[in-house]
Amino acid sequence: MKRITLLVLAALLLGAGSLFASGSTEKAASAPEKGPIVVASKIDTEGALLGSMIVQLLQANGFKVQDRTQFGTTDVIRKAIINGEIDIYPEYTGNGGFFFPDSPRDVWKNAKAGYEEVKKLDMQKNNLVWLQPAPANNTWAIAARKDFADKNNIKTLEDLARYMSNGGTVKLAASEEFVSRPDALPAFEKAYGFHFTSDELVTLSGGNTATTEKAAAQGTNGVNLAMAYGTDGQLAALGLVVLTDTKGVQPVYNPAPLVRNAIITKYPEIRTILDPVFKSLTLETLQKLNSAIAVDGKNPKDVAKKYLTDNGFLK
Description:
Layout: H1 2-29, E1 34-42, H2 45-60, E2 63-72, H3 74-82, E3 88-92, H4 96-99, H5 111-126, E4 128-130, E5 140-145, H6 146-151, H7 157-165, E6 172-175, H8 176-180, H9 185-192, E7 201-204, H10 209-218, E8 225-229, E9 240-242, E10 255-260, H11 261-266, H12 269-279, H13 283-294, H14 300-310
Parallel strand pairs: 1-2, 6-7, 6-8
Antiparallel strand pairs: 3-10, 4-10, 5-8, 5-9
């Protein structure tokens, strides 16, 4: 009798163990690993900053992440996300005019309208989703050495056109993208009537304004003008001033995460994770953060982490 009782007890214990094991397996199966998510960015100061924010936020929320920040220029990174080589990166709403050249031109000069337009077109044509944009306009600009601008009374691009038409000496440091894209330097030239010859250009392969602005600040090879962005934080520290675009040539460039629809559909919480952060990035905030990288020499990852931690987005 005792032997039968022990056998029954053993069977019950084995059954219970199987139930516990089954429950454990089911629990593990219900919580699969999230990702991997391939996060990229362009090869400039702000791209590295915003890309690092996305990487750290996703990692903190349980995602496995492949860090491809500082991936490439606009053309390169755009092809990569359309082809599924990367999953998410920070892009700029105003680039919609470049991506969709047949769209109405004026729409890109209005922040809300431009965002809605590129959001609609990218979803329809490329199955890409634009998340919350930052309220900061990182538009393309031309900056001048302050001493050069003061001496020649150059405050606007119209003033620059007058100076150049009178035979003034100029040399502009800019990226290949800025020089060649129809909506960048060529748009400025068409609107204001000036033209930079090859001898008046120092063309760089990358798009980092820290490099172009440093060349102007130091007068490298006679450079007195530089391609700049509206959110650059190093302008004042380098003794440079942005020349006012009085004709409103440039679109509004609000940074926002651009993500493949397949990813956001599978992981809709990404929107909840990233939207509040980008909503907090004002012009002054981005200028300050970019300055910490370009002027103070801090690592973009460290600057991103400090901002996210100080503002309660990371613990």
